Amino acid sequence: MPIFKLFLDICLFRKGPQDIPLSHFLLVISLNFALLTSTMLSWVEVAFFQAFLQSVCATLLLVGFSFGMLKMASKITRFPQTLIAALAADGMITALAIPLVLISLALPEWQPAVSLVLLAMMLWELAVLGHIVQQSMDFPRYGPGFALALIYTVLSMRIMMGLFPPLP
Fold first, then answer.
1. Which stretches of the chain drop beneath a pLDDT of 50?
2. Which end of the chain has the least Cβ crowding within 10 Å, N or C?
């Protein structure tokens, strides 16, 4: 599974989007993988259609962020590989979160510990996105990539909470 290893290496900061082959097939696979995992995670709390709709909106935000960032920097040719990397990393980390959420529902006494692990995974995903941004934008240091990833994350969370308010 060389593609799985490549995506894992991106999540472990060993590789970047520049290491991904330019492939329409990989883009479709990573897009579907991210949508599937995100929908499955959201489906735990909301109806399937709403979970899918939330996943589509979140994915569109990531697509828009990636496209806009690269377009403004005149690096739009990097868009497919950047998007594949971001979608694949999101899908892989989300896939790891699904069993943890199910455990916290089945074993409420584990919820505090699971919540800490999920928070760590959110920070990991933010760090991976910062790594992808840094590599895509050719920033010499990690800081600007992380800052852009943080801004994107905060804005996308605010947008998603505005579109899909938390259940009471």
1. none
2. C
